[in-house]
Design goal:
- The complex is a heterodimer of chains A (about 270) and B (about 80).
- With about 270 residues, chain A is mainly alpha-helical.
- Chain A folds into two domains: about 1-30; about 60-270, no CATH class.
- Chain A has helices spanning about 1-25, 40-45, 60-70, 70-90, 110-130, 140-155, 160-165, 170-200, 230-250, 255-270, and strands at about 220, 225.
- With about 80 residues, chain B is mainly alpha-helical.
- Chain B has one domain.
- Helix content of chain B is about 85%, strand content about 0%.
- Chain B contains three helices and no strands.
- In chain B, helix 1 runs antiparallel to helix 2 and helix 2 (about 30-50) runs antiparallel to helix 3 (about 55-75).
- The chains are: A mainly alpha (about 270), B mainly alpha (about 80).
C-alpha cells in the first residue's frame, strides 16, 4: 500500500516536471518576457524619489508602498474583510465567559522552558518585521501574524487557563483590535482633516505632498526615511492582526464548559 | 536566474507535489496536516528563490503556524481517522 502511494506520487511529480519542461520550451503558448516591464519600472522609479516628491512615497520598500500607498484603498478593504470574519467568529460564540480552574496544566516542563527561550526571539522578529515594514520586506500583516503565532504557542504550551490568567481575554483582544482599526482610519483621513481645518484641499489616503496639497506626513525619523503613512499603517495593522488572529484561535479552542455557556446564551437571545 | 536557484526551486516543487498527493491520500488527518505543512515549506522556499520575500514572510506564519494550529484544533474536536 505504502509502496503504491509512493510510486503514484513520484509519477505525478515526473509528469509535473515534464509539463514544466514543455511550458519552458514555449509548447503551451508564449511566455512572459524576462525584462522589467514598464509598470514595474514606473513603480521602481517613483517609490523613493526625493527629486520628484509629488509622485513618490519616500519609502525604500516598493511592495509596502504599493500595498499601503498607491493601492491603499484595496488594502483597507482587505483589512475590513478580515475584521468582519473575526467579528463573525466572535458572534458565533457570543455569551461565553472565560472559566478558570478547569484543570489545564499545559505541556511538560521541557517544552515550557524551551518556549520561554523562543518567546522573546519570535516577538522581536515579528515586531521588527512590522516596524521596519517601509524599509525591508515585510509589513503589518506579516509582523502581526508572526506575533499571533507566538500568542498561539503560549496558549497551547502554557494552557488556556494560564493565558486567561495573564489577561489574554476576548474583551481585551477585541479592544486592541478595534484600537488598531481606529488607528488605520485616523491615519488615512489625518491629512484630509488637517486640510479641511486649514481650508486647503487635501486627499484621503494622502501620504506625501501631492499636486494641489502641500500637507505631508513626516518623511524622516532622525536620519532614516519614514515613508509617512506607511509606518503608521504597518504598526496599527500589526496590532489589529495579532489581536484578531489570537482571538479567533482562542474562541475556536474553547473548552466544553465554556461552549455550553455560549449555547445557553444563544438560546436566551432567541 | 542562477542554475542553483533553478535546481532548488525544482526540487522544492517536486517535494510539494509528492507531499500534496500523500496528504490527500492519508487516512490519519494529523499526518495530512503535517504533510500539508511540508508542502507549504516547499512553497515558501520557491517564493524565496523567485525573489518574493514579502510573500515568504506572510506564507511561513500563516501556512506553517496558523493553518496547522486551526486544523489540529478541528481534529481534536472531531475525529482523527477517516472512515
Amino acid at each position: 500500500m505504502r509502496v503504491r502511494e509512493i510510486v503514484i506520487a513520484s509519477s505525478i511529480a515526473l509528469m509535473v516536471l515534464l509539463l514544466a519542461y514543455v511550458i519552458d520550451l514555449g509548447g503551451l503558448g508564449p511566455l512572459a518576457p524576462h525584462t522589467v516591464r514598464s509598470i514595474a519600472r514606473a513603480y521602481l522609479e517613483y517609490v523613493y524619489n526625493p527629486w520628484n516628491a509629488t509622485v513618490s512615497s519616500m519609502a525604500l520598500e516598493a511592495v509596502t508602498a504599493i500595498v499601503w500607498d498607491y493601492r491603499g484603498l484595496d488594502t483597507y478593504f482587505e483589512t475590513s474583510v478580515l475584521f468582519v470574519a473575526i467579528i463573525g467568529v466572535a458572534t458565533l460564540y457570543r455569551g461565553y465567559r472565560e472559566l478558570k480552574g478547569l484543570g489545564g496544566t499545559g505541556l511538560s516542563e521541557i517544552v515550557k522552558t524551551s518556549t520561554r527561550v523562543l518567546v522573546p526571539l519570535i516577538l522581536v522578529a515579528g515586531a521588527s518585521i512590522a516596524i521596519h515594514g517601509h524599509l525591508t520586506p515585510g509589513g503589518g500583516f506579516q509582523g502581526g501574524s508572526f506575533m499571533a503565532v507566538l500568542m498561539i504557542l503560549l496558549a497551547v504550551v502554557f494552557s488556556l487557563d494560564y493565558a486567561f490568567e495573564k489577561g489574554l481575554t476576548s474583551r481585551r483582544l477585541l479592544a486592541i483590535r478595534s484600537a488598531g482599526l481606529v488607528g488605520i482610519l485616523v491615519t488615512s483621513i489625518a491629512l484630509l482633516v488637517a486640510g479641511a481645518l486649514a481650508g486647503v484641499g487635501a486627499y484621503i489616503f494622502q501620504n506625501m505632498a501631492r499636486e494641489g496639497s502641500d500637507f505631508s506626513m513626516p518623511t524622516w525619523l532622525l536620519d532614516r526615511p519614514l515613508g509617512g503613512t506607511l509606518f503608521f499603517f504597518n504598526i496599527f495593522e500589526s496590532l489589529a492582526v495579532v489581536s484578531g488572529l489570537t482571538l479567533t484561535f482562542i474562541v475556536l479552542a474553547l473548552r466544553k464548559e465554556e461552549v455550553d455557556q455560549a449555547l445557553a446564551a444563544g438560546e436566551w437571545y432567541e | 536566474m542562477e542554475p542553483v536557484a533553478i535546481l532548488l526551486a525544482t526540487a522544492a516543487a517536486l517535494i510539494s507535489v509528492v507531499a500534496t498527493y500523500l496528504a490527500v491520500e492519508a487516512k490519519d488527518f494529523l499526518v495530512a496536516v503535517v504533510l500539508s505543512a511540508v508542502q507549504s515549506t516547499a512553497y515558501a522556499l520557491i517564493y524565496y528563490v523567485l525573489m518574493a520575500p514579502d510573500i515568504v514572510l506572510v506564507y511561513v506564519p500563516v501556512s506553517v503556524g496558523l493553518l496547522p494550529a486551526v486544523s489540529v484544533l478541528l481534529i481534536k474536536k472531531t475525529e482523527r481517522y477517516e472512515r
